């Protein structure tokens, strides 16, 4: 029979006993929760539709509490479990809480996991766009492809992030961003100024991608003209009469696209520049493509008709009646 001394001693030991019991039980509980999440992920990733349906029902009963376990399951050795983990994260009430894990899944060795992660991130719209866009520069081609898929699914919500990428000095990344913007057509109009600024590049392959994208988007010609005259003048305090001189080399490169909207706009803008464009046009006569040389010759004779006598013989013959020799 316990007396008062036993009760006092027991009361003194009770907090210590509770701490010991908690230390023993908590790891087991955590392990159990993690194991439950893995089992749930395995069901969600099962090739059997009935098993997947059971997994979805179980997931709805768990709510947001299963999120940590699903994130841990993204590192499981089984591809089916990792697929199910992404599906489970996609079905969470707030999938944005799993952003870091889903971004990591874009680099998963399993293509299905990468695709599922891309589609899930696309549902987050603008929230995930900047982080996904940066993955276009990832060393892994699989990650780049998955990121491109994700951004294409986002549509207009990805435009600001892609426009920022155009400012990088990285032609492959700029080209990918431009191509994705081109697939959106007129919805990508807010990116038009950034696309035009990127035309300052010396990489002709990138120039063609940028110009083709602008042709597909179809910005207002007045906007294109204004942005073209500002090329190379950003941050410089120039009088309006001198705006455009620094843009001429970039515009001459566009003359390699005769008959296209951007090629025509470059021709028009260079003609409006007048003698400011002359140095770049003369350089094109010596080193440009056939289309660039012909356009440069026509523009030069517009600046000074007497220049027609100084044109190379092949250009005078090919232009025929387009120029007049006195």
Automatic annotation (TrEMBL):
Entry keyword set: Lyase, Signal
The UniProt record lists the keyword DNA-binding: no
Lyase among keywords: yes
Domain of life: Bacteria
Segment forming the signal sequence: 1-32
Coiled-coil segments on the chain, per record: none
GO MF term set: lyase activity; oxidoreductase activity
UniProt-listed PANTHER family: DEOXYHYPUSINE HYDROXYLASE, PBS LYASE HEAT-LIKE PROTEIN
Protein name: PBS lyase HEAT domain protein repeat-containing protein
Organism: Pseudodesulfovibrio mercurii
